[in-house]
Amino acid sequence: MMSQTPDLSAPLETRSWRERIMVPALIGLVLLGLWGVGSATGWAEIGAQLARLHPWQVAALLALSAGNYLLRSLRWHGLARRLGLPTGLAQNLRHYLGGFAMSVTPGRLGELVRMRWLKRETGWAIERTAPLALMDRAGDLAVMALLLALGLTLASGGIAGAVPVVVLALAAAIVATRPRLLSALVTLLYRTLGRFPRLFARARGAARLLARFSHGPTLALVLGLGFIGWLAEGYAFHLLLGFMGADIGLWKALSIFVFSTLAGGLTGAPGGLGGAEAAMVALLSLEDVPLEISVPATAVIRLTTLWFAIAIGLAVFPMAERASVRAGA
């Protein structure tokens, strides 16, 4: 009997109970860990550091994060146009920003809700729009690997374990942007498993569509907008440490931010929860940043990046859902 492929357009409410409790459980563990470190450090010292932040400083951090999301949204729009999707700028921005609401799903697979919206509004099957999501993720991996390599080159001192992370990120980006290589890997995996023929056939078709993006100006768009966007968030972390009296230099701060983000993502945890925070606190400690600064700095930067993105996504998600339902009616 032929295996059935998973229906990515199915309602998100069909998620299993394990998926439902995973995110709250991870958030609880992160908060528990930060609480434990904070208790050992002293809440008075941590509170004093947080009190040093002025509203305009928090606004500056949020503005830099917003710039990152806007640039990456424009990248999504450019990729959508290159793929040939009949969608406009406002429509593509709505899809991209609304997808952030699902950032803390395992492996960020919930962000594939963008494919569901596109299917309703354009009639394009998910395997035809999947290269768009794949190229977007590959672009992030490539520019973050480049930023980390640049930061390690220009910063004084290195980060233990950073080179393997750079290599893995670049390797994933290369595979994801090489249609023939990705198609060959999909075929190899199918021959190894010998199951799910329809799913692997769709995956091979999606891999071939990546050839649309093997275009100089398109690759320049992907790398340029992504590079500036992620640089803005790394610069925000540098500013935050300076606001809190722990300036360790731009490139060192950038390296720690990017490495922690990548390392958290490699754990597979939703939004890198747990891994990113632990790596950030540990690396700051190695730079002689005291825990009464590293703990609140980590909490603030995650609030103004990951959780700010989720807040934007939650605000846009209902509009994107309603628009797609109307279009598909």
Automatic annotation (TrEMBL):
Q: What is its main location?
A: membrane
Q: How does it sit in the membrane?
A: Multi-pass membrane protein
GO CC terms on record? plasma membrane
Which keywords belong to this entry?
Cell membrane, Membrane, Transmembrane, Transmembrane helix
Short name of any one Pfam family annotated for the protein: LPG_synthase_TM
Kindly list the residue ranges recorded as spanning the membrane: 21-41, 53-71, 141-174, 219-241, 253-273, 293-317
Keyword Signal in record: no
Keyword Hydrolase carried by entry:
no
As for subcellular location, the record says: Cell membrane
Descriptive protein name: Uncharacterized protein (TIRG00374 family)
Q: Which organism is it from?
A: Rhodobacter viridis
